Amino acid sequence: MPTRILPAVGDVDAVRSITTLLSQLPDAEPVPPVVDSTQLIDTLARLAAESIDELPEVVVVHERIGPVPALELIREVALRFPAVGVILVTSDASPGLFQAAMDYGARGLIALPLGYEELASRVQAVAQWSVGVRRHLGAGGDVFTGVGGTVVTVSGAKGGVGATMTAIQLALAAQASGRSTALLDMDLQTGDIASYLDVQFRRSVVDLAAITDISPRVLADAVFRHDTGVALLLAPGDGERGEEVTDRAARQIVSALRSRYEVVVVDCGAQLSGAGAAAVEMADTALLVTTPDVVAVRGAKRTVRMWDRLQIRKAEETTVVVNRHTRGTEIQPPLIQKITGTAIAGIAIPANFKELQGAVDAGRVHELDSRSTVKQALWGLAGELGLVKASEGAHRGGGRLRGDRGAVSFRRRRELGR
Predict the structure, then answer these.
(1) In contact, 169 and 183? CB cutoff 8 Å
(2) Which of 20, 184, 324, 396 is least surrounded by Cβ atoms within 10 Å, i.e. has the fewest?
């Protein structure tokens, strides 16, 4: 059986030399290369969703791959796709880097400039390891494909547009439908999910920042289990400690949560930090919440352009959610879509703060009345995003979520305000 090899190389000259050598290896089947970290993860996730057997046996990662650094990318591949062997190609073949690469999950390291013999030997060894892992996984009744949970980030176009409320309700909807759900507060200086959910906590995301290998036990110690079943990983009580959470730490934390929960919702707030940028970059779905007014829409456009300049997220890969929507406002979702160049959520959230005020002031937004039009819209948005697992009752037209006293429809609605 031929060995499928996927090169992940951003440099044009390096792509040519690596693919040429790979094509000369016996029993090798190089697949078209990917040019950045996002494309690599997306490609592997698509293949893993079909079958573990569709994944390439070997992934060759070049040291100058981006925008995620090579070692961080190797860690994410190792966590999400454990049956794939990763080889790092680098000009630094020092013992220190070799040890670091192994610690991050690589199965081998090859020094530049590439030599045929070394490449052939390392690819063969890693391919044999990968085949063995798949044989072991296939022997069990429950085969892990390595796709991991779905990560959704929620960012605000500016402060006060409702990003935190959106993140909380999406997590509650996912959990109520039967999916194991984690809610991560990555608004590190001003995040206050704990106040919205009436939570007193001792540990926060900062407690994981300095840990290089987040085991399930360590993660469980930092997570607060809410009465609703949602696992909370909260922002620090002292905002200045948020600086301890680097982009590297954020990637490790999000990857650890993704490996343990079916849905991970991340509240990134309205200020871009390195940690928040890393979360948005890793997300399967990146939401940007705005209100239908000139200042907020300008903020949304500014954020989208900044994400694109920093190679965090392309505009077409971002979905804008319109909050506090009314039919009478001059700025409607189609106009916001045109201004920002993003996708637009099919469900807009109606303007009805009176429904929310009592629950917000009491810190009990998880007890928001199910007749609330705002809650129904946000839970409908969760359905549109594929975060909820439909129950039998929903298939029969009941449309109820477990633990929710009201009926919520999850039909995809097109833009409100048409």
Answers:
(1) no
(2) 396
DSSP 339-363: HH-SEE-SSPPB--HHHHHHHHHHT
Q: What is the C-alpha to C-alpha distance for residues 1 and 373, in angstroms, rounded to an integer? A: 57
Each residue's pLDDT tens digit, 225-269: 999 999 999 999 898 998 999 998 999 899 889 888 999 999 999
How does DSSP classify residue 400? Answer: B
Angle (CA) 13-18-22 rounded to 5° is 155
Taking the alpha carbons at both ends of the chain, their separation in whole angstroms is 55
Of 324, 332, 368, 370, the C-alpha closest to 350 is 324
pLDDT over 60 at 190, yes or no: yes
Q: Give the list of residues 6+ apart from residue 363 with CB closer than 8 angstroms, or none.
A: 195, 196, 197, 198
Both tokens of 365, joined, read 């937004």
Range with lowest mean pLDDT among 65-74, 132-141, 239-248: 132-141
* C-alpha torsion sign, points 402, 404, 409, 414: negative
- Cis peptide upstream of residue 113 (ω within 30 degrees of 0): yes
Distance, CA of 324 to CA of 334 (rounded, Å) = 15
The helix/strand/coil state of 314 is: coil
For residue 245, give both structure tokens: 């959470």
Q: List phi, psi (to 5°) of 71.
A: -65, -40
CA distance 111 to 251: 26
- Write out the two tokens for 220: 């469980």
Q: Give yes or no for residue 399 having a pLDDT over 50.
A: no
d(CA 340, CA 307): 12
Residue 144's SS3 state is coil
Residue type at position 91: S
Could you tell me the two tokens for 129? 């390891």
pLDDT at 401 over 60: no
How confident is the model at residue 85, as a pLDDT?
94
- What value does the mean pLDDT take over residues 74-96? 89
The whole-model pTM stands at 0.68
